[in-house]
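Below is the data:
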Amino acid sequence: MNGTSTLSPPAVLAWRDYDPAACELPGMFLGELVLPGPPEGESERLWQLGARRVRLPAPVDVAAGRDPERAGQAVAALSLVRDLTARAVVVEWDLRLPAGADEVWKVLSHLQPPRRIEGPAGAGEALRTWQQGHYLCKCLWRKGPGFVQIRDRRWGELRRFTADEPHYEDTIERLAYGAPADSVPADVLDDFRTEKLVLDVGPLAWWLPYRISRWLQEPMTI
């Protein structure tokens, strides 16, 4: 059991195809789907239902301040976007950032780009840059025998972070769907923050990289 925020993702609209034109055909709309949780299983559930395009109904608001409920809602929605990105499912979503948080989008730029960014000045240019530079496998993590490794290309070059201490893997599992920042080892969290591998949303810390579900290339080339 990880240190989850305990909230489920929002209900979503879903279609059976990636192409918007194909989604207009009879039988392609799956309807509004309630996601009862647990959050770590929802992307698999949507995939098995045939969802290839998913729309979140409300903006993902990371300008939550210290409100734990709003933070939990934002983290649940971000987790769904991350997990669907890992499956190469098209996600239609909007992002609300705090005013002045001009660089936060870069931390999230491995996720499928949103349709709109609200909040900071320059959001339009940030969104264009995000859309033009996005590709699958931009920031991912994997488990090997006795170690975890993160490969991160969000900053224009490949950065690797490798840890073989068991408490690093345990902390990743606890942060995967959000956990109170003070509930995980401070030294590990500090390392992850330094490498920009976690996002602080209110009182919660949330793990950013995803474990890839669909490879576009042979894994050894990533």
Notes: The helical segments are 20-23, 42-48, 68-86, 104-107, 123-133, 166-175, 186-194. The longest helix spans residues 68-86. The radius of gyration is 17 Å.
